Amino acid sequence: MNIEAMISLTAYFALMLGIGFYAYRKSTSDVSEYMLGGRKLHPAVGALSAGASDMSGWMLMGLPGAVFISGFSAAWIAVGLVIGAYLNYRFVAPRLRVFTEMADDAITIPDYFEKRFNDKTRALRVLSSVVIVVFFTLYTSAGIVAGGKLFEASFGLDYQLGLFLTAGVVVAYTLFGGFLAVSLTDFVQGCIMFLALIIVPLVTYFVLQGAGDLSTSMASIDPSYFTWWPEGMTVMALISLLAWGLGYFGQPHIIVRFMAIRTLKDIATARYIGMGWMIVTVIGAVMTGIIGFAYSQSQDLEVGDPETIFILLSQILFHPYMAGFLLAAILAAIMSTISSQLLVSSSSLTEDFYRTFLRKDASQTELVAVGRVSVLLVSLAAIALAFDRSSNILSLVGNAWAGFGAAFGPIILLSLYWKRLSREGALAGMIVGAVTVLFWLYAPVQIGGQSLSNVIYEIVPGFFLSGLAAILVSLFVQPSRSLVEERFLTMEKAMDDGHKAMF
């Protein structure tokens, strides 16, 4: 990779830092603004921020690579994610926006749990905060590892230098600019990803078409490559792929965007924008894998790592300046997720530990300062974990989606729709969901010679058992029910009033 591509990436870094400086000047006067943007987020910014922080490098590397290897059958996971994202916008976003504001302006998920269930013991807050900080530190580490490897593979830079370049820029704009910086940079990064996933498959298609190689290369590919249900695919495998969509309901770095959108009416606008963005980018990612496979066949191109097909096409078919822009799209996907995870972890450390247990009367200025220090501490821990490139952290991150989805997803849904869900039920569901996922992953149990996670994706039993535990415990253990039900009805009335005001 030459100097022109590096110039493009330098310009991208400068833009991110500039946005961070703008956000620092605009909205970091109190902890609500620093952690949640003062609930004034534009729906377009909220939608693209949620999408960009959700997809990470999976959209530009993981999905094209999976389709490159397996064909259309690998795209079932994308179908599941699209369905899950729509249901998240439709059923979680509006109520969570209203309920968190009505719950004494809760600005973190643990804060919402405590206030929603009137948890005087603070067990819900502590448990959910620990889950968030631990898993997001690992998640952040994986993103930093991906950035280090991207710089190493694309520019020949030292791996450790790539780590610090990736982490340094993200930490700078997140630490100083807070939620607004993260959301605005995510918006820009989402736009870059959107353009890149249109440009790369289209240009590759026209290159093949112009050279007369498209029909030849397509004809040489096994027809089963283009089927959605190849031989050997089981119903359980299909359920496992589609079940990725269940994870959306419990991802703190995604649903916190819903809490920040400025009005209930704007949620619908955000849904249209977010789903439009997601459908186009998912199709672009799938087509990158398909057309990239056809290109490699026609050019006898050996692709050592299928997940690098987007990078290879960018380097081969585009001018270095444009290739730098396309590589910035991968970096944008990585950085948008890192920044969101850093901020959610920082919010939890500040609100759910420091303010709750150490300094209840801390000033707004002090809390913002603690939030910034928390961003730095989490990032340093993540860098330390990522420093050894042989670390197996990435294998843990693949399970974090299931962990969050099973531990938080059913509790979020039930808390928004079932008035009889109690504090005890929420706590039981959270524990059962997390434990089930861990058991499914690590227990020395096999079915038909296969590990449990190879039989069915761990989020399926985790999500089901979490919801079941929450319902059963709430039905049979009733100490705090009356006050909790009263609070739910107050929130639901506010929700109904908000809907009436929209029409």
Automatic annotation (TrEMBL):
The chain crosses the membrane at residues 6-24, 67-87, 123-147, 159-180, 187-208, 228-249, 270-295, 365-387, 393-418, 425-443, 455-477. It comes from the Bacteria. One of its GO terms (biological process) is proline transport. It catalyses: L-proline(in) + Na(+)(in) = L-proline(out) + Na(+)(out). It is found in: Cell inner membrane; Cell membrane. It is a multi-pass membrane protein. GO terms for molecular function: L-proline transmembrane transporter activity; proline:sodium symporter activity; sodium ion binding. One of its GO terms (cellular component) is plasma membrane. Pfam families: SSF (PF00474). Keywords: Amino-acid transport, Cell inner membrane, Cell membrane, Ion transport, Membrane, Sodium, Sodium transport, Symport, Transmembrane, Transmembrane helix, Transport. Belongs to the sodium:solute symporter (SSF) (TC 2.A.21) family. Catalyzes the sodium-dependent uptake of extracellular L-proline. This is Sodium/proline symporter. It comes from Algimonas arctica.
